[in-house]
Design goal:
Layout lengths: L16 H20 L20 H12 L1
Helix pairs in contact: 1-2
Length: 69
C-alpha cells in the first residue's frame, strides 16, 4: 500500500489501513504469547508498540518485523 493511502478508511466507523495493519500484528503477537507463553501478553489498551503514533510506512514495517523476533 502506498504510504499516502495509510490513512484510508473504508467507512467512517472502520479503522484506517495503518490501524488495521498494526492491529493484525498485535493479534498475532497476542496469540503467540497466549499459546507459547514466552512473556506476558501485551494489553491493547496500554500497549505502546502497536498503536499508531504518527508512524510512517518505514517505521511501521520496522515495528512489525522487529516484533516478530
Amino acid at each position: 500500500m502506498p504510504e499516502e493511502k495509510y490513512d484510508y478508511r473504508a467507512s467512517l466507523e472502520s479503522l484506517t489501513f495503518a490501524e488495521n495493519l498494526l492491529h493484525i500484528r498485535y493479534a498475532i503477537d497476542w496469540y503467540n504469547q497466549s499459546l507459547l507463553g514466552n512473556r506476558e501478553s501485551r494489553d491493547w489498551k496500554t500497549d505502546t508498540i502497536f498503536h499508531i503514533t504518527e508512524k510512517f510506512k518505514e517505521e511501521m514495517i520496522a515495528t512489525i518485523v522487529i516484533s516478530i523476533n
